[in-house]
Specification:
This protein is α+β, with helices and mostly antiparallel strands and 105 residues long. The chain is 29% helix and 41% strand. It contains 3 helices and 6 strands. The protein is elongated and about 45 Å long. The N terminus is likely disordered.
């Protein structure tokens, strides 16, 4: 069993595709900012979805989640939980939009 230590919280993860965490950041370049988002499988500690964009739009966060779903093919029986820090970009990713992705897998 692997554990993810997030601050004072310790989350036990016993298999892949049980807990995915995502984050959003930006990088300054000579031409402006580049925005990046990652979806990480907490058990495998591997990036399973990612996207880069020149604007912090909601869609590219959802694209990273969709890439992860298509790459890993989680099922409802796996009980996958997706966690983000719920910043402004995380809040704009509607659960109504994301949930059909998991239902289709």
């Amino acid at each position: 069993m692997k554990a993810l230590n997030r601050g004072s919280n310790l989350l036990a993860v016993s298999a892949a595709n049980m807990l995915w965490v995502s984050d959003f950041s930006y990088v300054a370049t000579w031409k402006g900012f580049v925005y990046v988002t990652f979806v990480i499988d907490a058990y495998a500690r591997k990036i399973v979805g990612w996207r880069v964009s020149t604007s912090p739009q909601t869609g590219f966060g959802l694209d990273a989640l969709e890439q992860a779903v298509h790459a890993r093919r989680p099922t409802k029986a796996m009980g996958l939980v997706h966690h983000s820090d719920r910043g402004s970009q995380g809040l704009s990713l509607s659960r109504k939009t994301a949930m059909p992705l998991l239902s289709a897998a």
